[in-house]
Amino acid sequence: MSEYNVKKLRRTHKGRIVAGVCSGIGEYVGIDANLVRIGLAIATLFGGLGVGVYAIGWLLMPDEESDSSIVQDLLNKQQNRTDWSGEQKPQQ
C-alpha cells in the first residue's frame, strides 16, 4: 500500500493575513478561510470569544514549516533550562 496521506492542522503561509490560523483551519477542514474568519468575527462581536480562540490557535498550532507550536517551544526551552529538582542549570 502507498503512504497514508495524513492531514495535519498547521498555520499556513498561503492565504495568511495575521498568523495563518484561519487559513490553516480552512485548509484542514476543507472550507474557505474567509468563512472561518467570518465565524471568528461573529464570535468576537458576541462576547469576544473569537479573539481568545484565535490566540489559542496561534499558540497551539505549529507553523507549516515547524514540527512544534509556540507553546511547545517555550516548554522545551524552559525544561532545558531547569532540571527536575527545580534548580537552574549553569549557562554554558
UniProtKB/TrEMBL annotation:
<dbReference type="Pfam" id="PF04024">
    <property type="entry name" value="PspC"/>
</dbReference>
<feature type="transmembrane region" description="Helical">
    <location>
        <begin position="38"/>
        <end position="60"/>
    </location>
</feature>
<dbReference type="InterPro" id="IPR007168">
    <property type="entry name" value="Phageshock_PspC_N"/>
</dbReference>
<feature type="domain" description="Phage shock protein PspC N-terminal">
    <location>
        <begin position="7"/>
        <end position="64"/>
    </location>
</feature>
<keyword id="KW-0812">Transmembrane</keyword>
<dbReference type="InterPro" id="IPR052027">
    <property type="entry name" value="PspC"/>
</dbReference>
<keyword id="KW-0472">Membrane</keyword>
<protein>
    <recommendedName>
        <fullName>Phage shock protein PspC N-terminal domain-containing protein</fullName>
    </recommendedName>
</protein>
<keyword id="KW-1003">Cell membrane</keyword>
<keyword id="KW-1133">Transmembrane helix</keyword>
